[in-house]
Design goal:
Transferase(Phosphotransferase), domain 1; Phosphorylase Kinase, domain 1; 2 domains; alpha+beta; 13 helices; 33% helix
Amino acid sequence: MTEFMPPVDEQRVNEEQDNSLTFFAFAKPQPETPHKAVAAQAATKPSLGVMPELLVGRYRIERLLGAGGMGAVYRARDLLIEQFGEPDPYIALKVLSEEFSESPDASALLYSEFALTRHLRHDNVLRLHSFEVDTGCKRAFITMELMRGLTLDKLLCERPLGLPWHELREIVLPLLDALAYTHARGVVHGDMKPSNVMVSEEGVRLFDFGLSQAQEGVLDGLPRLSRDRFNAWTPGYAAPELLEAQPLAPSADIYGVACVIYELAGGKHPFRRLPSTQARDEHLERKLRAPKHLPRYCWPALRRALAFQAVDRTITAAQLRDAFGITPSWRQRMRFWA
């Protein structure tokens, strides 16, 4: 992984800082006020490694919900709307991890995720509220809806044999619909895996667009940030071309979501969660069989989506959704017409 630049030195304003979006966001901090840290740590000034108890005087951090390679998500209480009588003032709040916060374009990276996700208006894509900066502790963060449910990786731990078709279909169709919509809007998710999909009483939500990219001509005002140096792909769900530093394309999302669907349908990853390049080199596709809970008519489409070579992955998210959404009556008509 490429080494990151050290944190911005507040005493040294030079040309590099003038051109740094992170420095621009933090250039004029408000007068320092004491922040009570969630983790006890003696410090003379706010540290990127300390999460304060209160952000921008409005969001009170309650507990950590989850952390990954690039960031962490907390449950927080919005004190402003609580003051006005909101019965459910809880939100989720995302910050970059300490390592990425020290990158000179950290704020731009987080804002890019916010802008790309806000560009999407779909019932099955997690809704974001705001992008904000606490200048006291030098933290940029995103506020978003708080989902109360299970991510698919946790669901698979509870259901190790996979889901029967009627349950599987209720997850797969909205997920594929969200992905098809995302691609139609010119956005590639870039990190399809079970931990980035949640199911709850409110439905299915696709989230974490931290590695996403807009295709050419979409949201041209955003800085074009290279994700390559972050090296944050999950090897078991990232398509081979991503692990070989090829450009991100919708077909990479297809490979990732196909691995997720296969795992939900049978309880096992199609390639033992090995890096896709290793699975390809070991020719594991030759041993691939349809998962037990998947109807036969869905297997050809899913098998194509699992192709190691991007040129062989000739199916879109919309086509995959349609293949899974065929009803018995339509199957009978298709057999008749054939």
